[in-house]
Amino acid sequence: MNREIIGYWILDPADVKSFEIYGNISMEFKANGELIYTLHSDIKNEIIVMTYEIKDELLITDQLSSPHMEETKFVLTFDDKLELFFSGHRSIHIRKKLNRLNR
């Protein structure tokens, strides 16, 4: 497993196109292979719990509530950004220090 991906990631505010496509999302990659994907809104947050594994340059995820494996190419950049390439679109994520009180 690529341990560099472990942590809390948000969409880069400069990545306007990804906000239009995905909304205000965050991802928390845990060391145990769990991925918490959150779609944030003013009304409530929608949380999707997944598992993940890394194989070479692929992020392989599986949603527990609706099992189906997805493969997404990814790159960890030199400036500590996470680029995901999914369905022909590149999204850019920045690492954020996790504040357990206000996810």
3D structure, described in words:
The chain has 103 residues and is mainly beta. The protein has a single domain, classed as Lipocalin. It contains 1 helix and 8 strands; from the N terminus they run βαβββββββ. Strands 1-2-3-4-5-6-7-8 form an 8-stranded antiparallel barrel. A hairpin with a 2-residue loop joins strand 7 and strand 8. It is globular.
Any chance you could write out the topology, listing elements then pairs?
Blueprint: E1 7-11, H1 16-22, E2 24-29, E3 34-40, E4 46-55, E5 58-63, E6 69-76, E7 81-86, E8 89-96
Antiparallel strand pairs: 1-2, 1-8, 2-3, 3-4, 4-5, 5-6, 6-7, 7-8
Mind describing the biggest β-sheet? 8 strands, antiparallel, barrel
Low-confidence segments, ≥5 residues, pLDDT <50?
none
Task: Please state the second-level CATH architecture.
Answer: Beta Barrel
CATH topology: Lipocalin
Task: Label this structure with key terms.
8 strands; globular; 103 residues
In brief, what are we looking at here?
The chain is mostly beta strands and 103 residues long.
